[in-house]
Design a protein that fits this description.
The chain is globular and about 35 Å long. A five-stranded antiparallel beta sheet has the order 1-2-3-5-4, covered by helices on one side. It is 20% helix and 21% strand. The protein has one domain: HIT family, subunit A. It contains two helices and five strands. By secondary structure, the protein is of the alpha+beta class. The structure holds adenosine monophosphate and zinc ion. The site of adenosine monophosphate has 13 residues, from loops.
Length: 115
């Protein structure tokens, strides 16, 4: 856990969130400012600042997160026809919280390219 990291605090329960999934290594909660009818943030409990700092040793946890995204999506009928998973990285990528996270979005049709 990194002191002063919002998402570390959320996964530790120090900051409240609407939890939708938790296991030993992964935590998922509703986004506070949803950009779709369903908008869930999925994080590793381990503090990693972003996709630009991942290491080979993070291979397993990053794989687990994609499996968790799929499992969560299965639980929502709104995502039966599809969903989107996004990881913003760095300031140009639109990252605002520097604990790696994946947005799971569903319940509407998404355009391409993203803004
Ligand atoms: P990003 O811009 O990719 O770094 O995404 C950060 C996301 O975290 C945004 O979608 C925010 O709405 C969301 N967020 C920020 N603070 C909280 C919080 N306390 N609880 C839930 N989601 C949050
Ligand atoms: Zn953190």
């Amino acid at each position: 856990m990194l002191k002063d990291c919002l998402f570390c605090k959320i996964s530790e329960g120090e900051v409240p969130s609407y939890k939708v999934y938790e296991d030993e290594k992964v935590f998922a909660f509703k986004d506070i400012n949803p950009q779709a009818p369903i908008h869930i943030i999925i994080i590793p409990k381990k503090h990693i600042s972003g996709l630009n700092t991942v290491r080979q040793e993070d291979e397993r946890i990053l794989g687990c997160i994609q499996i968790v995204a799929s499992k969560i999506a299965e639980q929502f009928h709104e995502m039966k026809r599809g969903f989107r998973v996004i990881a913003n990285c760095g300031s140009d990528g639109g990252q605002t919280v520097f604990h790696i996270h994946y947005h799971l979005l569903g319940g509407r049709v998404f355009g391409w390219p993203p803004g």
